[in-house]
Design brief:
binds zinc ion, Aminopeptidase, Immunoglobulin-like, 3 domains, Alpha-Beta Plaits
């Protein structure tokens, strides 16, 4: 009797729960017939939708609720593929300490172009490492700023290794490989292999406190403001990092599918730069044989919400508040593949990772004479008849602005706060890598 009562109470409190991204139970829901009921439950997180079903994450009481609602599910074996089987011939993944040592070793090869720093600590006190790669790496130069972040879902491990391979190849290729040399000379690249080291240590999706970090960012579609209060340690660190830089193009790496997923995730509304997002997602997918030939996603890309809607994700937050176009790249169907598969995944993704980073040069910006100037800029595209169409108005700070755009001719109308004059200039956007980026100096 007592157990029944406790069960009933848990069931009732579960029904009233809001979504905080807390994960205490995980299952695979069989089929799509119950999707509607599940979508109405705010505390549940859907991931990796396929025709046969989807992963479902939620707080305690979820499984009971599913049972009592008559929804068919099985244990989520997908997220732990291979992780539970031990194989003495299989090389295991490096530990946090080994990754730290590897990154230190790599940046020491070329301290003139690479440096390692931490943007904060995880819940359990692990450093959240970022490698900056650029010529004159110690100087904050006026160059477009790009970033890769991997493995915010701790058990989606492939990208944590691939980003380390990429760091190595960029550092070693500098000076001999032309594509890499031009990229490093004219871009500030920031690469974060592991946003959730505590989760990776446990081979789990959530951070050490059980929170899904890709449901933990501020989301304007549910009325949130861009505030760090109440966010998880890892989310806060990334939010502070983003606010301190001028990123204009980013991607974050996941696993469990093979696809490049572009905003928005949180609404079915099309993104104002939908076509551009498709183009840059294709730049990634086209260089990856498995992604390009996907039978599940045309061209290896998908709009986020068209796949499944999620709230509190990083990519929507990144553009909405920081004008930083970000896509989510799913690198491998198995979230935790055998380590011996990693070099093959890197071969499939290396050209994509470089081509996507290079895409940041398809853009334009400006710099003001004051490093602390703030204001707004209206960006207008020149049409065939010579007139201009306004694409939007964007804020800028720290005296600089840069935006990735489709090819064409543009007019920028810049309003510097505290000044009465509007500065206007025209500029051309094409994919070529320009010396230190395509910036116009405003005097
Ligand atoms: Zn993920």
């Amino acid at each position: 009797m007592k157990n029944i009562l406790i069960g009933a109470l848990a069931f009732l409190s579960f029904q009233g729960m809001a979504n905080t991204g807390l994960i205490q139970e995980e299952v695979f829901v069989n089929g799509l017939q119950d999707l509607k009921i599940i979508k109405q439950h705010p505390a549940l997180t859907i991931d990796h939708m396929t025709n046969s079903g989807f992963e479902l994450y939620g707080p305690k009481g979820m499984k009971q609720w599913l049972q009592e609602s008559g929804i068919s599910f099985s244990e989520n074996t997908h997220s732990h593929s291979h992780s539970t089987k031990s194989n003495k011939f299989e090389v295991s993944y490096p530990t946090y300490e080994q990754i730290e040592a590897n990154l230190l070793k790599l940046v020491a090869l070329r301290p003139d172009i690479a440096k390692l720093f931490s943007i904060g600590k995880s819940t359990e006190g692990r450093e959240l490492y970022v490698v900056k790669i650029s010529d004159n790496v110690e100087i904050d130069e006026l160059e477009p700023e790009f970033k890769y972040i991997s493995s915010m879902h701790g058990n989606e491990i492939t990208g944590r290794e691939l980003t380390q391979f990429l760091i190595k190849d960029i550092i070693e290729g500098y000076g001999s490989n032309q594509q890499i040399t031009e990229l490093v000379n004219n871009t500030e690249l920031y690469i974060m292999p592991s946003m959730n080291p505590d989760g990776s240590k446990r081979k789990q999706r959530a951070n050490a406190k059980g929170y899904d970090l890709n449901r933990n960012f501020p989301d304007w579609t549910i009325g949130e403001i861009n505030s760090e209060a109440t966010r998880q340690a890892e989310t806060k660190a990334v939010m502070k990092f983003q606010a301190s830089r001028n990123f204009s193009l980013s991607a974050n790496f996941h696993g469990g599918a093979v696809v490049a997923n572009y905003p928005w995730d949180s609404t079915y509304e099309r993104h104002p730069f939908d076509k551009l997002l498709q183009d840059i997602s294709l730049k990634y997918a086209n260089e990856n044989p498995e992604m390009r030939t996907s039978t599940e996603f045309a061209g290896g890309i998908t709009n986020g919400a068209d796949w499944y809607v999620l709230k509190g994700g990083m990519q929507d937050w990144s553009y909405f508040w920081y004008n930083d176009l970000q896509i989510t790249v799913e690198l491998s169907n198995k979230k935790w593949p055998r380590y011996s598969k990693i070099p093959g995944f890197y071969q499939d993704n290396k050209a994509s990772m470089l081509a996507y980073a290079e895409a940041i040069h398809q853009g334009a910006g400006f710099v003001t004479s004051s490093k602390i100037a703030t204001g707004s800029v209206e960006v207008m595209l020149k049409l065939n008849d010579g007139s201009y169409r306004t694409l939007g108005s964007f804020g800028f700070s720290r005296g600089e602005f840069y935006k990735v755009l489709t090819n064409g001719e543009y007019k920028f109308r810049v309003n510097i706060k505290g000044e009465n004059t509007v500065r206007e200039f025209t500029t051309t956007v094409d994919p070529s890598v320009q010396a230190n980026g395509n910036y116009t100096a405003l005097n």
